[in-house]
What we know:
Elements: H1 3-12, H2 24-34, E1 38-44, E2 47-55, E3 60-66, E4 86-88, E5 91-93, H3 97-117, E6 124-130, H4 141-151, E7 157-160, E8 172-174, E9 176-177, E10 179-188, E11 192-193, H5 203-216, E12 230-238, E13 245-246, E14 249-258, H6 264-277, E15 282-290, E16 293-294, H7 299-312, E17 317-319, H8 327-330, E18 336-339, E19 353-355, H9 356-374
Parallel strand pairs: 3-6, 3-7, 7-18, 8-17
Antiparallel strand pairs: 1-2, 2-6, 4-5, 5-19, 9-16, 10-14, 10-15, 11-13, 12-14
Helix pairs in contact: 1-3, 3-9, 5-6, 7-9
Amino acid sequence: MSDVLQLTCDLIARASVTPDDAGCQALIADRLRRAGFRVESLRFGEVDNLWATHGDGGPVLALLGHTDVVPPGPREAWSSDPFAPEVRDGLLYGRGAADMKGSVAAFVVALERFVAAHPAHRGTVALLLTSDEEGDAVDGVRKVADVFRERGQRIDWCITGEPSSKAKLGDLLRVGRRGTLSATLAVKGIQGHVAYPDKARNPIHQAMPALSELAAKRWDAGYETFPPTSLQISNIHAGTGANNVIPGELQALFNLRYNPHWSAEKLEAECEAVLRAHGLEYSIHWHRGGEPFFTPEGPLRSAAREVLAAFAGEAPEESTGGGTSDARFIAPLGAQCIEVGPVNASIHKVDEHVSVADLEALPDLYFALIERMLA
């Protein structure tokens, strides 16, 4: 069994359902210490974070990943135990195989190889891991980034190992991500009998035109490789369950995925202007999940394009699609961020898996990227 396959299996066997690290980072820390890395554990609340570095000064290249996984769901729905890794027909099965214990294991193997081959490399190479990526993302990389900001810890380049490939390893290079902004809206009415609407105020009737305007709004035409900003209403609730009662309140949840044309603050103001224009009596709670980031042409993006083309046999698609990743907390530190990882077809699903061939190629891919930037 190859080194990266064995380490991935060892990590999968630790049932690190977010935010529990279940000993994954301790295992990795021991290996990296033996390879000559300085290792620091940063625990906040129930979340474990690991910062391991080799070398000194700049430039600083950080590999970013997470050891936590989503819950497996019903165990009986899996073909094998989600926390007992199993290879079948060239695929490694287990929760976290693709998202993202395979990438984390490949990071570790690539780092060990790199510092052995280039002990006096320029700058600093680092690994940052958290156990809070799949959860609330409060005490993980978000909190570590605050610590780095206070310390003046620089990061010039960041490679996130999120599963980004579509059909084959290296066919997609993530060069940015949209921002995410969520709202919980409460529209207040006056409860009453449906036969006497003059004695009540229906928050459903009042809210629908405003919500319809927000949903239909053309926020922008896109930005660089980013799609247009989008608002999606995900939940609406009102009423007592009776068909003869006008409700006293409506609650709605909506989310905006936005490009660098916007900031969360500007979007909040724009949305609330619409709500006020419709005369609503409302309260709203905003959750800023992360601002958008974008890596323009430069040394990191150029190196990644060439390395991925060599692995995939053709130039990768360069994309800003998908949801969010922890890179959204590193980019504001001034880092250029990209995401490169295995095929994402099975992530968060029953029988999550990764190709063993792709897994065994990942350390070489990450090694080539690190070598291009720091050797």
